[in-house]
Amino acid sequence: MFRKAMKLIDIGANLTDPVFRGKYRGKQAHPDDLVHILARARASGIVGMMVTGGNLKESAEAIRLSREYPGQLFATVGCHPTRTSEVDRHSNGATAYFTELRQLIDANRDVVVAVGECGLDYDRLHFSGKDVQNKYFERQFELAEATGLPMFLHDRNTGGDFVRIVRENRSRFSNGVVHSFTGTVEEARALLDLGLYIGINGCSLKTEENLAVVKSIPVDRLMIETDCPYCDVRRTHAGHKLLEQASMAGGWAAPDSKKKERWASDSTVKGRNEPCMIRQVLAVMAQLHSISEEDLAERLFENTKTVFFKDIELQ
Question: DSSP string covering the chain, please?
C-alpha cells in the first residue's frame, strides 16, 4: 500500500538557545550548526517548527529565525512564567512591555502562530513569584483576544491555579496547547474538558505513571514536540523500553551522537536534544496507543495544523 511521506510539526523548539550556534555557557565549543540541525529535522519528516518565544527578546529572535528560514520555522510571542519578573523592570513599565509584544505580533502575522509561551510554573518560584506569574499570565489573554491567535501554554505543579485561570479566560482565546505535559490523568482530563490540546515530549515519558497518562489522552487531542535542547528520551526513562521495541517507520535511525568536544556536522551532540529526535517521541507514543507511527503522525499533523497552521501551507 502506498503511503504519503510522513509529516510532523514540532510545536516546541527552543532554537534561540545559543547551544544551537555551538555556544555553551558563553563559550564557543564548536561551529554554528543550525543549518545541519534543520537539515536533520527535514530528513526526519518535520515540515514545520514553532520556535518558542520565552520573553520579549527571545520572541523577536524567534521571528528573526522564522524570517531566515521561511516556511520551515514559525514563531510564538509571549512571556514564560519564569521570566515574568522582568516585565516590571522594563524601562517604560509593564504596559510598554506588552505593547511591544503586541507590536511584534502585528508586524509579523505571517510567521507568528501563537501567543506564548505563557502560563504558570510553581516549581521555579525563585525566578518569579506566584503573584507576578498570575498577574502577567492574565495579561497574555489580552494578547490572544486582541490578535485572535491560539495560545502556547505552560503548566507546572500549580495546584489548580492554572486550570482556574484558563477557565475564567477561556472565552478570550480560540484554542491552545499545554505543552511538555507531565501531570496526572485527572489534570489531563481537566485540560481536555477546557477544549485544549496536550503536547508530549521526552519529559512526558519519564515514569510509568507518565506513560499511563499519555495513553489515556485521545489521539485527536495530542500534539508532539521536542522542547529541544531539553527533554530528550533518556535510557533511564520508562519510555525508553518502548523505544527499544519500536521499528522506526521508514527505516529512520537516530544520527550518531558525539560529545561537543568531538563535534561533527553529521552527528547530534550528546546532551543537546534537537528536532529530529521527535521521531523517538513519536515511536513511544505510537506504542502506547497501539497504532502505527505513520497513522499517529498523520493525526498529530492534522491536530496541529487545525490549531496553529489553519491558513498556512506546510510542504
Answer: ---PPP-EEEEEE-TTSGGGGTEETTEE-S---HHHHHHHHHHTTEEEEEE---SHHHHHHHHHHHHHSTTTEEEEE---GGGGGGGGGSTT-HHHHHHHHHHHHHHTTTTEEEEEEEEEETT-TTTS-HHHHHHHHHHHHHHHHHH---EEEEEES-TTHHHHHHHHHGGGSS-EEE-S----HHHHHHHHHTT-EEEE-GGGGSSHHHHHHHHHS-GGGEEE---BTS----TTSTTHHHHHH---GGG--PPPEE-GGG--TTSEETT---GGGHHHHHHHHHHHHTS-HHHHHHHHHHHHHHHH-TT----
pLDDT in tens, 213-226: 999 999 999 999 99
Question: Which tens digits make up the pLDDT trace of 264-300?
Answer: 999 999 999 999 999 999 999 999 999 999 999 999 9
Calculate the CA 9 to chain-centre distance.
10
Task: Extract the C-alpha cell encoding 200.
Answer: 508530549
Residue 251 confidence (pLDDT) above 90: no
Q: What is the pLDDT of residues 67-106, one digit of tens each?
A: 999 999 999 999 999 999 999 999 999 999 999 999 999 9
pLDDT tens column, 167-216: 999 999 999 999 999 999 999 999 999 999 999 999 999 999 999 999 99
Backbone angles phi, psi at 181, to 5 degrees: -75, 130
Q: Are strands 73-77 and 46-51 parallel, antiparallel or unpaired?
A: parallel
The reported pLDDT for the residue numbered 2 is 41
Closest by CA position to 51, among listed 23, 99, 9: 9
3-state secondary structure 143-211: HHHHHCCCEEEEEECCCCHHHHHHHHHHHHCCCEEECCCCCCHHHHHHHHHCCCEEEECHHHHCCHHHH
